[in-house]
Specification:
The complex is a heterodimer of chains A (425) and B (328).
Chain A: H1 2-26, E1 34-40, H2 48-61, E2 65-71, H3 74-87, E3 93-97, H4 98-106, H5 127-132, E4 134-135, E5 138-139, E6 142-148, E7 150-154, H6 155-161, H7 169-183, E8 186-189, H8 198-203, E9 209-210, E10 215-216, H9 221-235, H10 247-256, E11 260-265, H11 270-273, E12 285-288, E13 302-309, H12 315-328, H13 331-341, H14 353-356, H15 359-369, H16 380-396, H17 401-415, E14 423-424
Parallel strand pairs in A: 1-2, 1-3, 8-11, 10-14
Antiparallel strand pairs in A: 3-13, 4-5, 6-13, 7-11, 7-12, 9-10
Helix pairs in contact in A: 6-7, 16-17
Chain B: H1 2-12, H2 19-58, E1 70-72, E2 75-77, H3 87-93, H4 100-129, H5 136-148, H6 151-162, H7 168-175, H8 187-216, H9 219-227, H10 232-260, H11 263-270, H12 281-290, H13 296-327
Antiparallel strand pairs in B: 1-2
Chain lengths: 425, 328
């Protein structure tokens, strides 16, 4: 009798397991709806609600596709995705930083999108951004949003001190001193992250690497001059001595509270700025192109995000994911996202009257026109990681500008696969 | 008689042949015991033996994220990494990677100072709480509280308090008229800061363990010592400390192993770029495996080296203790 009970239990549990399996495979059946997962790396409070609304619209238009939305913090998304992709269970769609796309494609995690539903309207996009999503001639991502760094400033403080938005870093230093003298507000807060050092580098005519001659150029004369400018600004008190653990957050807090007059930041931060007490009046936030260096030209890096599709998904999921990417990057969706959150569209036909009516977005559109794409090598995000370590060492005064940059160049050559063949001075 | 009993034993020895035969015999007689042990063996095999074996294997290869096997849905990409022998160990131990020895030195300093402070502060608090005083149970609960806080929560709270601009420490220092301290920025201060947090987290465990040890020392010993005219210091030195020895030996060893591999505080408190000189071996190994370049072989090498160092430490520590025990 006892054995009988055990056998019944066994059969019952087997049956349960079998039905559970059945439920799983039903999902993939041709007739039923396909469920795809999207890892969104945007700001969970300011941007995510807008994308959730877009998903509702997409699901209403495509009855056979369901989208599971997951917000993954930007800082950890790349590593999380790599881990999941290697194990075969990555999300079907990822919002990948433009700097990640090449590296993920090199690992074969991404599906090429040429000729798929995702890229039907690719000709309407900014071709510079499209080129940035290509690896060896194949397109691996569709640009969803773009951005560039600009000089954001507090108009009220500027008016009180009687200064104009500076055109060069030298002018900025003078303006900062006047501001401190007349209003007591600090001049500028510079985020101690190497990405935010790019305007200084470009302003001196420098580059991170020269892909033509296959040379690492971050430690050349222009590079040294660029970082020396930053060091001098911090030393002379023009720039606040940054916090090295929470630099970005402290920068935002100081700017929002009106404790600092200027920051260098991108369009993604403006929604956050406007929640601060210094910008209760929206018009108080000024946007100007980043100042230029001694080379006489201003340069700002092109940033942004691409939507990419996982290579390990099966055909049904891939097609659904491609349709989803097409929808999210359509002119209408981009216009909607831009007006709701302040992000910048990646295609010209999305810069409608409604989008450019906003003065902040209109200013950023001008900033974008002069932005410089990142070097077309994979592993750019890894390059920033190594560079930031040395950048912080330099700012702390633990090492000299020269030594810090030389170490950066050496680390790039040894640690970044795509730079193994490059020469270093 | 003696020889008679010895003879069958020697005669039986040739019959003890073959490990297999013995195992078979043992299986025949104790098969249920084997069956009972089996699940445990399986679990240990899956959770410990396989990962450990895999780690050892990877440390002899040049595996990284580009050449490991990948399962991308239906397509399978086979592994292409190669066996490189002791290359990884040589690169690390010869100092060629430039990271190992500086990080080892700081890991040892970190472990030694943390365990020292844990033990001394824990001992002090335990001695205080071992007396009869008003509200003793309240103090005990309050002092144990940090232990109940998950390490990562504590780390984030402390990180806010250490913040150079909005943190409470600098606010207090400002009130006192002392300039702000760059707690997490300055290379030396960030080391002090992380040790401070770990001490805060680790003292309660030591305190509770030592308190248990103190209560196990019989009061008769103290009474006898008092009768002999021993001063409080002499009572502490010759009754309390020897009485605590078994507890101390265990908690110091546990504390050393835990602190050596105390991951969350340094990893979460400082962030990657800021912690260039304050990474301990285990956080660095994690950066290798899951940081930017994903060097699985390098991380495995560090992991095996950390394991070996702790094993050697544990063996020597036990041996020294045993020797002391034997002397006594």
């Amino acid at each position: 009798m006892r054995r009988g009970i055990a056998a019944t239990a066994l059969v019952a549990s087997l049956a349960l397991a079998a039905t559970a399996c059945g439920g799983d495979s039903e999902d993939k059946a041709a007739g039923g709806p396909v469920t795809i997962t999207w890892w969104d790396t945007s700001d969970a409070t300011n941007e995510a609600p807008t994308y959730k609304k877009l998903i509702e619209k997409f699901e209403a238009a495509h009855k056979d596709i369901k989208v599971t939305y997951q917000n993954v913090p930007f800082a950890e998304a790349e590593q999380k995705y790599k881990t999941a992709a290697q194990a075969g269970n990555a999300p079907d769609v990822l919002r990948a930083d433009v700097g990640w796309t090449a590296g993920l494609a090199e690992n074969q995690y991404l599906a090429p999108l040429d000729g798929t539903p995702a890229t039907k309207e690719i000709d309407s996009f900014n071709q510079g951004l499209v080129d940035g999503a290509k690896v060896n001639g194949k397109l691996y991502g569709v640009p969803q949003v773009t951005d560039a760094l600009a000089l954001l400033y507090n108009k009220e403080v500027f008016a009180k001190a009687g200064v104009q938005p500076p055109k060069t870093w030298a002018e900025l230093s003078t303006a900062a001193k006047t501001i401190k003298q007349k209003t007591g507000v600090d001049g500028i807060y510079l985020n101690p992250d190497s990405y935010f050092a790019l305007p200084f580098l470009y302003g001196e005519g420098g580059t991170m690497v020269d892909t033509g001659t296959k040379k690492i150029t971050v430690n050349d004369e222009a590079g040294k001059k660029a970082l020396q400018t930053v060091v001098d600004m911090v030393k002379s008190g023009v720039a606040v001595k940054p916090d090295f653990t929470d630099g970005y957050n402290n920068m935002q807090a100081a700017f929002k509270d009106g404790k600092v007059a200027m920051v260098v930041n991108g369009p993604w931060s403006t929604a956050d700025d406007l929640t601060g007490k210094a910008f209760k009046n929206k018009d108080n936030l000024g946007v100007a192109p980043v100042p230029s260096g001694s080379a006489g030209k201003a340069g700002t890096p092109t940033g942004g995000h691409n939507l990419v599709v996982y290579n390990g998904a099966d055909a049904a999921h891939k097609t659904a994911a491609q349709k989803f990417v097409a929808f999210m990057t359509s002119a209408a969706s981009q216009e909607f996202a831009a007006t709701e959150t302040g992000v910048l569209p990646t295609r010209d036909d999305a810069y409608t009257v409604k989008v450019v009516a906003d003065p902040i977005r209109a200013s950023f559109k001008n900033v974008l026109a002069d932005s410089t794409a990142r070097p077309a090598v994979s592993g750019v995000s890894d390059m920033f990681t190594e560079w930031t370590k040395q950048y912080i060492e330099i700012l702390k005064g633990n090492t000299t500008v020269e030594k810090g940059l030389d170490t950066t160049a050496e680390k790039w050559k040894t640690n970044i696969n795509s730079l193994k063949e490059y020469s270093v001075d | 008689m003696k020889t008679a009993t010895a003879d069958p034993a020697t005669a039986a020895r040739p019959a003890r042949a073959g490990l297999l035969t013995r195992m078979k015999r043992s299986y025949d007689r104790h098969w249920y015991a084997w069956a009972m042990v089996l699940p445990v063996v399986l679990v240990i095999g899956v959770l410990i033996a396989y990962p450990l074996g895999r780690g050892v294997y990877l440390s002899f290869t040049d595996a990284n994220e580009l050449n490991v096997a990948k399962q991308l849905g239906a397509t399978e990409i086979p592994a292409t990494y190669q066996f490189v022998g002791f290359d990884n160990y040589w690169r690390v131990l010869s100092g060629a990677d430039g990271e190992f020895y500086p990080k080892l030195l700081w890991t040892v300093v970190w472990t030694a100072s943390c365990v020292f402070l844990h033990y001394t502060i824990g001992l002090g608090l335990a001695l205080l709480l071992n007396r009869k005083l008003k509200g003793r149970s309240l103090y005990r609960v309050l002092l144990i509280l940090p232990w109940a806080v998950p390490a990562f929560v504590a780390t984030y709270v402390w990180r806010m308090m250490y913040n150079s601009e909005s943190g409470i420490f600098n606010a207090v220092l400002g009130q006192l008229g002392i300039g702000p301290v760059d707690w997490l920025g300055d290379t030396f201060m960030q080391k002090v800061a992380v040790i401070g947090v770990n001490v805060w987290l680790g003292v309660p465990f030591m305190m509770v363990a030592i308190l248990g040890g103190l209560q196990a020392i019989s009061s008769e010993q103290y009474e006898a010592a008092e009768m002999d005219g021993a001063t409080p210091w002499q009572r502490f030195r010759h009754v309390t400390l020897p009485g605590l020895r078994p507890v101390s030996a265990t908690v110091i060893m546990l504390g050393t192993i835990w602190t050596f591999n105390m991951f969350p505080i340094i990893y979460l408190m400082l962030g990657e770029a800021n912690a260039l000189h304050s990474e301990i071996l285990v956080t660095y190994a994690y950066r290798l495996a899951f940081g930017s370049v994903r060097d699985y072989a390098g991380a495995a090498t560090y992991g095996i080296l950390i394991l070996s160092m702790l094993l050697v430490f544990a063996v020597f520590y036990r041996r020294i203790l045993d020797r002391q025990e034997a002397v006594r």
